[in-house]
Specification:
about 220 residues, alpha/beta, 8 strands, about 35% helix, binds D-xylitol-5-phosphate, binds zinc ion
């Protein structure tokens, strides 16, 4: 049985509560912290940049996973890489030179990932498989937490799992958006081994319990 990684998104966490929430995530057994970087251009919302990643890095040993929902993505990679984050993922829809971006991330020794919006075909990962450490299937449209899971994502996860397994490469298969304790079983059965959850974990009085429910044990 493959290890399941749990990466809570701190998107819905009030800034004034970040430090205590991150301690709760550590104590609750999270594997990564998922950082949703939104630039007000690729998506409407604006969240935070590399300064936040750096501040978080200073208060936790948890690994950091950066989801770049940005235009001009190439401009942002260096700053996050220099913070020492563990994964940087870029969208396929708005970047002309995805292969080059992945090369740039990997030059830092960081895991490089691709993100597919709900309309983007999974087959797009095929010709960049040798560059990938992480594939993220968006199960909502990016831009906000607390949306409902798009059911067609299960088929996309299964297709991505098939492509990844055939490649023989060790690539994390992540899902992001609308994940909760009721639908997570089907998500794992479809082949995801990296579960990102925002509101289902953060909007909960008992974060350890919420992480357990998502992990399923
Ligand atoms: C959406 C973000 C997600 C989101 C997850 O653009 O990429 O990470 O915050 O939040 P929930 O789990 O509430 O959908
Ligand atoms: Zn995300």
């Amino acid at each position: 049985m493959k290890k399941i990684y749990i990466a809570p998104s701190i998107l819905s966490c009030p800034f004034y509560r970040l430090e205590s929430t991150i301690k709760d995530l550590e104590n609750g057994g999270a594997d990564y912290i998922h950082l949703d970087v939104m630039d007000g251009s690729f998506v409407d919302n604006i969240t935070f940049g590399s300064k936040m990643a750096s501040d978080i890095k200073n208060i936790t040993n948890l690994k950091l996973d950066v989801h770049l929902m940005t235009e001009n993505t190439e401009r942002h990679i260096d700053a996050f890489a220099q913070v020492g984050v563990d994964i940087i993922s870029v969208h396929i829809e708005n970047n002309y030179h995805v292969h080059k971006l992945l090369q740039k991330i990997k030059q830092y020794g960081i895991k490089a990932g691709i993100v597919l919006n709900p309309h983007s075909p999974v087959v797009h990962i095929k010709d960049i498989l040798d560059m990938l450490d992480y594939v993220l299937i968006m199960s909502v449209n990016p831009g906000a937490g607390g949306q409902s899971f798009i059911e067609n994502s299960l088929k996309k996860i299964a297709d991505a799992r098939d492509i990844i397994d055939r490649s023989g490469r060790d690539i994390l298969l992540a899902v992001d958006g609308g994940v909760n304790s009721s639908n997570v079983m089907g998500i794992k059965e479809s082949g995801a081994n990296y579960i990102i959850a925002g509101t289902a974990i953060l909007d909960n009085d008992n974060i350890s319990e919420a992480i357990k429910n998502i992990r399923g044990c």
